Each structure stands twice: as C-alpha cells, then as structure tokens.
C-alpha cells in the first residue's frame, strides 16, 4: 500500500534551492528542486506502508525517499549546495520525521494523504535544518477527505 505525503515548508528564506532526497548514502539524487521566493514550498511524495495493523502497533515505511532505522524513519529535504545550487551560501538538510503516523490515520480513509507544515527559516535566519523541532506532526489532508 502507498501513502501520499505533502510537506509544506513555511516561509523559507528567498533565493535558496530545496529538493527531496531520493536514495541514500552516496547513491542519491535530488528531486523536485524548487527555489524559494515569497511563498511556501510544497513537496509531494509517495512512500510504501509496511507491516500489519493486527500485529504491529505502528506502521513502517519504505521507499526511495525513506531514511533511517525502524521506528525512526524520516524524509530529507536537501538545501542550497546539497540541492545542487552551486552558488548558494547554504549547504544543509532538513529532516522530516515520519513519527506520529498511526494505523488509525491510515485506515480512516481508503486513500489517505497526510500533510505537515514545518518552518522554512531557522533561528539563524537561514534555511531551517537538522531535525524539525518542535515537530507539529502529520494530519490527514483535506485532499483525501
């Protein structure tokens, strides 16, 4: 079963490239690169849902965008030079946790779309990076209702 995710990056600093990391280690590419401007950036992707709701308390996720060990899965958004923008002063990654997604959320709708909104600007005024804190979590998007 597949799950569609929508990540909204709220008000990132202008003029910086952002993109989803597909793959891991040295074997990855950056997909869906967007340059920030005056609006929010939205990234859409699909992940595979693994596990059995009758046997496991929480779902697991797999796929080319999924990073990290079991129960600590996440998605990377690459920023600036990490997104291929050679003239950027920024070289960062933003870690979007897949924590908080439950079987109940997935089984509530036949084709759920889960969304989250994360701050695009960090405390230093540059692009937000590292693990999103505090993380507001995932919600069922109105697109799937």
Domain count: 1
Count every beta strand, where a strand is a DSSP E run of 2 or more residues: 11
Oligomer: single chain
Taking the alpha carbons of the first and last residues, their distance comes to: 18 Å
Biggest sheet character = 6 strands, mixed
Average pLDDT confidence is 94
Beta strand %: over 45%
- Sum up the overall morphology in one term: globular
Helix content: under 10%
Radius of gyration: 15 Å
Structural class comes to mainly beta
Summary, kept brief:
The chain has one helix at 103-107; strands at 2-10, 17-24, 27-35, 41-50, 60-62, 66-67, 74-80, 91-97, 113-119, 130-131, 139-140. With 145 residues, the chain is mostly beta strands.
Please characterize this protein's 3D structure:
This protein is mainly beta and 145 residues long. The chain has one domain (2-144). 3% of the residues lie in helices and 46% in strands. The protein is built from one helix and eleven strands. The chain has one helix spanning 103-107; strands at residues 2-10, 17-24, 27-35, 41-50, 60-62, 66-67, 74-80, 91-97, 113-119, 130-131, 139-140. A hairpin with a 2-residue loop joins strand 2 and strand 3 (27-35). The longest helix has 5 residues, at 103-107. The two termini are 18 Å apart.
List its traits:
46% strand, six-stranded mixed β-sheet, globular, five-stranded mixed β-sheet, mainly beta, 145 residues
Write the layout of secondary structure elements.
Layout: E1 2-10, E2 17-24, E3 27-35, E4 41-50, E5 60-62, E6 66-67, E7 74-80, E8 91-97, H1 103-107, E9 113-119, E10 130-131, E11 139-140
Parallel strand pairs: 1-9, 8-10
Antiparallel strand pairs: 1-4, 2-3, 2-7, 4-5, 6-7, 7-8, 9-11
């Amino acid at each position: 079963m597949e799950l569609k995710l929508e990540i909204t990056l709220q008000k990132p600093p202008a003029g910086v490239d952002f993109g989803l990391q597909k793959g891991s280690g040295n074997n990855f590419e950056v997909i869906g690169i967007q340059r920030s401007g005056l609006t929010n950036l939205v990234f859409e992707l699909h992940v595979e849902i693994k596990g059995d709701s009758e046997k496991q308390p929480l779902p697991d996720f797999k796929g080319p965008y999924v990073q990290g060990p079991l129960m600590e899965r996440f998605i990377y958004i690459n920023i600036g030079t990490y997104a291929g923008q050679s003239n950027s002063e920024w070289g960062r990654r933003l870690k979007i946790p897949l924590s908080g997604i439950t079987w109940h959320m997935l089984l509530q709708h036949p084709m759920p779309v889960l969304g989250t909104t994360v701050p695009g600007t960090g405390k230093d005024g540059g692009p937000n990076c590292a693990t999103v804190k505090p993380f507001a979590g995932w919600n069922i998007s109105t697109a799937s209702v």
